[in-house]
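W.,

You were right to be curious about this one. When I first looked at the sequence I had no strong expectations either way, so I just let the prediction run and decided to look at it fresh. Below is the sequence, 308 residues in total, followed by the output.
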Amino acid sequence: MDIHSEYQKRINKVQDYIETHLDDDLTVDILADVSGFSKFHFSRIFRGMMKETLLCYINRIRLERASSLLLHNPMMSITQIATELGYSDSAVFARSYKKHYGMSASEARQQFSKHGKVDSKNGKANIFIPSYNDEAMTFRKENVSVEKPSVELRVIEEIRAIYVRHKGTYKQLAASFPVSLKKLFHLAQVKKMMHPDQSRPFVIYHDHPAFTEEEHLHTSICLSVSQKGKEHDPFGYITIPSRDYAIFHFTLKAHEYHYAWDYMYSEWLPQSGLQPDQGAVFEVYQNDPATHPEKKSKIDIYLPIKSL
């Protein structure tokens, strides 16, 4: 058994649990039980693997999720956001938010509504400026023509998948993606988990790049499979539950991904009468761009949605 891989798999499982239970009381006892480590050792192991304490990690994830809700869910009150993310009351949330970002949640929302970004007085909030939005604006200035996607709204069926977790920049992710995907296909074939004609590679983005510093971005490189993995399989296993999604069907060149995400959030959502819901946001890859006559990728982006 690869001990380091086993430890990483257990910490990944804790991360997955935290993301889907942000409104719960995330105690050391509960998370240690999820990890399979003893309570005595768990906090030290988590800090060693993640390079930040468990408390700091949970607080950061909650506040980054709060920033995303402030930006993309304008109908939610700040009190509702605090409750949804597990804060005991809005005052506790307000203090945490201001300490982390150097401004209040209401100031951040006001800045978002005016400029789509936050200008911090003390420089702490410079991570609010999304690099992909900057690039999308550049594309518009250069009059790059990107075909708008077709969009379908439907309830997706439950998706089972195996995954390899990546932590770091998206540039690093692009470099490691082919190797990780090859490993997943091999494991799925060996374990007889491939779903004939239906297994697809996809990537789950767990963080919003506008609010998360690059070194903390974590992404799951996934392969949909036909059955659940076993406890000691050498990969992570995740289930995406059935729920309402908007599915965007894009055909993109390599440099146009930023436009696609900007279009979804800046153009389509504000006119849709919908807002993003909690849940996995992911890209499903439908072809090998090397075989496309224009070297384009056919990509479906899945965005969980709910009514305003």
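Here's what jumped out at me. DSSP finds ten helices and nine strands in the chain. And, maybe more interesting for your project: Residues 117-143 have pLDDT under 50 and may be disordered.

Coffee later to discuss?

I.
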